[in-house]
Design brief:
Layout lengths: L1 E5 L2 H12 L17 E7 L2 E12 L5 E10 L8 H15 L2 E9 L3 H5 L4 E2 L4 E3 L2 E9 L2
Parallel strand pairs: 4-5
Antiparallel strand pairs: 1-2, 2-3, 3-4, 5-8, 6-8, 7-8
């Protein structure tokens, strides 16, 4: 059974590091404004197996826009529906916070996953190191 609950930014760091950027220093996976985010983890028993972080800002038109970052699932727990549960949770949380849209910088190898939630690419491909990304967005309002 998977339990989803809030976690601290510091609790996300080991999984972010191990899954997303294991070849970089730990500080590479920290976000400058981590303390302003809403961080959730998926737990199997007492083991943290997936994390995602949500940040909500006001855009130039005065509307709330949400962004999720550092979405990581331990390889032993991938393809079990845990990421899907976290995405549904984060989409719901963004709506509860009255965001009009939700976006992320998505690794292209995960693009099909995001498309299943109605997210579409809204940018050209760009790179972080050697990893190709595109901005994906979902209209919520």
């Amino acid at each position: 059974m998977i339990i989803i609950r809030p976690v601290t930014p510091e609790q996300t760091y080991p999984l972010r590091h191990a899954v997303l950027w294991p070849d970089k220093p730990l500080d590479y996976v920290k976000i400058e404004h981590d303390n302003d985010g809403y961080h959730v983890g998926a737990f199997s028993n007492d083991d943290l197996v997936a994390v995602i972080s949500l940040f909500v800002d006001v855009d130039t038109s005065g509307q709330s826009v949400a962004r999720f970052r550092k979405f990581a699932t331990h390889p032993d727990y991938q393809r079990r529906g845990i990421g899907t549960q976290l995405m549904h949770h984060i989409i719901g949380e963004a709506r509860r916070r009255h965001a009009v849209s939700l976006w992320c910088d998505a690794r292209l190898d995960a693009a099909d996953f995001y498309r299943r939630f109605g997210m579409e690419p809204v940018s050209e491909v760009f790179y972080k190191g050697s990893v190709p990304y595109a901005k994906f967005s979902l209209t919520l309002a």
